């Protein structure tokens, strides 16, 4: 097979050639866009799932749908220890530009509020050289979104943005990736601002994406967040969708898979979108001709697994300390022993290591902060990366 014509695209957040299995989410979001733009009440949206299921890809696809409707959009990626003001200000600056409001005075006012919001990041009374600028030419608006209380400021900022969007009959979408990494104060402020928006009916929505424990993070901040957001769990693809993710790009290049090859690919990938792209690329490069067979999949599997071991699993494993790696390995062993691949009891992990649970809290907390594990329910722990336990056991 010609590697130049290889259609598959394994990459972090990189859109695959065929976005299979996400039609329901895209259709539902189209309804949300129309309702919000027409002043109808609608909740903001939160996508959750493991690494490699395509949350970032779907987040980008939803943003693209908003852009096609003429909305103003901005995207940011939350990072541990980073405040919300700077990245959000940059994202909203872009959203206002995309909105295309023709009244320069109104636009300058909102841009000035964004600038005022951003400048509070340096603290009150900061010297000019210490103030970060989002690249906005308009003068900062004093007394608006600059109180220093992130919750008050975010409500005021979103209110002004919503008014600007309502003027042109469109909306503003704020897309936040890795949302679980927002700090507690920023999460609380974001929930409060979304609550205010839901009551006022202003055309601004937040679309967040994060790991499976994100709903618990939001709920711990504001109890009403359970009713504030529409939660969608993004999971691995069904067999039908996984086949389409492989077959449609191949057909565009006049190639095909035989039925046994598709079955072998699903067994190898588990239906996880990132794995489908990684295996698809390796199989294409090594298969001698079309149609691709199950034998071709077997020949290419070691190369695909080697690529995943380095780029997908290995890069995360290397971030763990020796003590944390022991904890991860114990998790993998307990999952096999209990036949519970989704999550395991923390107490059982401690027992496998011959230690008291309290003594392992530092390692567990560090792994949580690094995004290698998550706790979906009290007393249990799980990997954020699918098949990570298998990788650890094979590594030894």
Walkthrough of the structure:
The structure is a single chain. The protein has 16 helices and 8 strands. The chain is an alpha/beta fold. The chain folds into 3 domains: about 210 residues, P-loop containing nucleotide triphosphate hydrolases (Rossmann fold), CATH 3.40.50.300; about 80 residues; about 70 residues, Orthogonal Bundle (Arc Repressor Mutant, subunit A). A 5-stranded parallel beta sheet has the order 2-3-4-1-5. A hairpin with a 5-residue loop joins strand 7 and strand 8. Helix 10 runs parallel beside helix 12, helix 13 crosses helix 14 and helix 13 crosses helix 16. The protein starts with about 20 loop residues before the first helix and ends with a helix.
Give the oligomer, counting copies of the same chain as homo and different chains as hetero. Answer: single chain
What share of the residues lie within helices?
40-55%
Fold-level CATH name of the largest domain:
Rossmann fold
Q: What is the annotated CATH architecture of the largest domain? A: 3-Layer(aba) Sandwich
The number of distinct structural domains comes to 3
**Rg computed from alpha carbons, rounded to a whole number of angstroms:** 23 Å
Mean of residue pLDDT values: 92
CATH superfamily of the largest domain: P-loop containing nucleotide triphosphate hydrolases
What is the beta-strand fraction?
5-15%
In short:
The protein has 16 helices and eight strands.
């Amino acid at each position: 097979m010609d590697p130049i014509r290889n259609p598959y695209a394994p990459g972090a957040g990189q859109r695959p050639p065929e976005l299979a299995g996400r039609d329901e989410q895209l259709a539902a979001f189209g309804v949300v866009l129309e309702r919000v733009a027409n002043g109808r009440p609608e909740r903001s949206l939160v996508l959750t799932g493991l690494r490699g299921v395509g949350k970032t890809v779907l987040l980008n696809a939803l943003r693209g749908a908003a852009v096609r409707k003429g909305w103003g959009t901005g995207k940011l990626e939350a990072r541990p220890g980073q405040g919300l003001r700077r990245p959000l200000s940059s994202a909203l600056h872009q959203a206002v530009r995309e909105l295309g409001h023709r009244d320069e005075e109104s636009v300058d006012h909102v841009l000035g509020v964004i600038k005022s919001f951003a400048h509070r990041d340096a603290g009150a009374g900061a010297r000019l050289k210490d103030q970060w600028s989002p690249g906005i030419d308009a003068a900062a608006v004093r007394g608006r979104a600059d109180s220093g209380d992130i919750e008050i400021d975010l409500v005021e900022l979103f209110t002004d943005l919503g008014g600007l969007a309502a003027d042109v009959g469109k909306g503003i979408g704020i897309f936040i990736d890795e949302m679980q990494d927002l700090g507690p104060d920023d999460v609380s402020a974001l929930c409060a601002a979304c609550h205010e928006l839901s009551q006022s009916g202003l055309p601004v929505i937040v679309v967040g994406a994060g790991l499976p424990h994100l709903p618990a993070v939001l709920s711990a901040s504001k109890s009403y967040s359970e009713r504030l957001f529409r939660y969608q769990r993004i999971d691995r693809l069904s067999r039908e969708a996984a086949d389409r993710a492989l077959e449609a790009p191949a057909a565009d290049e006049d190639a095909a898979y035989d039925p046994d090859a598709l079955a072998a690919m699903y067994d190898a990938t588990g239906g996880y979108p990132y794995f489908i792209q990684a295996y698809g690329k390796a199989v294409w490069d090594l298969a001698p001709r079309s149609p691709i067979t199950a034998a071709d999949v077997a020949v290419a599997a070691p190369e695909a697994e080697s690529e995943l071991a380095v780029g997908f699993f290995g890069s995360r494993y290397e971030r763990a300390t020796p003590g944390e790696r022991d904890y991860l390995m114990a998790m993998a062993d307990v999952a096999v022993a209990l036949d519970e691949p989704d999550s395991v009891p923390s107490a059982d992990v401690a027992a496998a290591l011959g230690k008291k649970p309290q003594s392992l809290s530092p390692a567990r907390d560090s792994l949580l902060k690094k995004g290698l594990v998550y706790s979906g329910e009290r007393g249990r722990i799980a990997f954020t990366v699918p098949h990570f336990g298998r990788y650890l056991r094979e590594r030894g």
